[in-house]
Amino acid sequence: MSEKACTDCKRIVEDSDECPVCKNNVLSDSWSGLVVIYDTDSEIAEEMGIQTPGRYAIRVK
Protein backbone atom coordinates (compact mmCIF):
# COMPACT_ATOMS: atom_id res chain seq x y z
CA MET A 1 0.00 0.00 0.00
CA SER A 2 1.35 3.44 -0.89
CA GLU A 3 1.57 6.43 1.40
CA LYS A 4 -1.55 8.58 1.36
CA ALA A 5 -2.37 11.88 3.02
CA CYS A 6 -5.46 12.71 5.04
CA THR A 7 -7.51 15.40 3.31
CA ASP A 8 -8.43 17.01 6.65
CA CYS A 9 -5.30 17.09 8.83
CA LYS A 10 -2.69 16.19 6.13
CA ARG A 11 -1.20 13.32 8.18
CA ILE A 12 0.73 10.80 6.05
CA VAL A 13 -0.92 7.40 6.45
CA GLU A 14 0.57 3.99 5.60
CA ASP A 15 -1.17 0.61 5.58
CA SER A 16 -4.54 1.94 6.70
CA ASP A 17 -7.76 3.30 5.24
CA GLU A 18 -8.32 5.69 8.15
CA CYS A 19 -6.31 8.58 9.55
CA PRO A 20 -5.02 7.75 13.05
CA VAL A 21 -5.22 11.41 14.12
CA CYS A 22 -8.65 12.66 13.02
CA LYS A 23 -10.30 9.33 12.04
CA ASN A 24 -11.11 10.65 8.55
CA ASN A 25 -11.38 7.93 5.91
CA VAL A 26 -10.88 10.22 2.90
CA LEU A 27 -7.21 9.82 1.96
CA SER A 28 -5.46 11.13 -1.14
CA ASP A 29 -2.62 9.76 -3.27
CA SER A 30 -2.12 13.27 -4.63
CA TRP A 31 0.06 15.10 -2.10
CA SER A 32 3.40 16.90 -2.13
CA GLY A 33 5.97 18.14 0.34
CA LEU A 34 6.75 16.51 3.65
CA VAL A 35 7.30 17.89 7.13
CA VAL A 36 8.14 15.77 10.16
CA ILE A 37 6.89 17.20 13.45
CA TYR A 38 8.59 16.09 16.66
CA ASP A 39 7.78 19.13 18.82
CA THR A 40 4.18 20.28 18.60
CA ASP A 41 5.15 23.56 20.27
CA SER A 42 7.40 24.50 17.33
CA GLU A 43 6.54 27.47 15.13
CA ILE A 44 5.94 25.24 12.10
CA ALA A 45 3.57 22.93 14.00
CA GLU A 46 1.66 25.90 15.36
CA GLU A 47 1.43 27.55 11.93
CA MET A 48 0.15 24.31 10.35
CA GLY A 49 -2.23 23.63 13.26
CA ILE A 50 -0.60 20.29 14.12
CA GLN A 51 -1.13 18.95 17.63
CA THR A 52 0.17 15.37 17.21
CA PRO A 53 3.79 14.48 16.30
CA GLY A 54 4.25 12.66 12.99
CA ARG A 55 4.72 13.01 9.24
CA TYR A 56 2.50 15.51 7.40
CA ALA A 57 2.03 16.58 3.79
CA ILE A 58 2.43 20.24 2.95
CA ARG A 59 -0.11 20.16 0.09
CA VAL A 60 -2.95 17.67 -0.42
CA LYS A 61 -5.22 17.65 -3.48
List keywords for this structure.
61 residues, Rubrerythrin, domain 2, 5 strands, globular
Summarize it:
Helices cover 10% and strands 34% of the residues. The protein has 61 residues and is mainly beta.
Describe the protein in words.
It is built from 1 helix and 5 strands; from the N terminus they run E-E-E-E-H-E. With about 60 residues, it is mainly β. It has one domain: Rubrerythrin, domain 2. Strand 1 and strand 2 (about 10-15) form a beta hairpin. The protein starts with a strand and ends with a strand. The mean pLDDT is about 95.
CATH level-3 fold name: Rubrerythrin, domain 2
* Uncertain residue segments: none
By oligomeric state, this entry counts as: single chain
H/E order of the elements? EEEEHE
Largest β-sheet summary: 3 strands, antiparallel
Strand pairing plus helix content: what structural class? Answer: mainly beta
How are the strands of the biggest sheet laid out side by side?
2-1-3
The portion of residues forming beta strands comes to: 25-35%
> Can you tell me the number of structural domains?
1
Mean pLDDT: 96
Classify the helix fraction into a percent range: under 10%
Query: How many beta strands in the DSSP annotation?
Result: 5
What is the terminal-to-terminal distance?
Answer: 19 Å
Name the overall outline: globular
- Tell me which CATH architecture applies here: Single Sheet
CATH class: Mainly Beta
Number of helices: 1
| Rg of Cα set | 11 Å
Task: Present the secondary structure layout.
Elements: E1 4-6, E2 12-13, E3 27-28, E4 31-37, H1 43-48, E5 54-60
Antiparallel strand pairs: 1-2, 1-3, 4-5
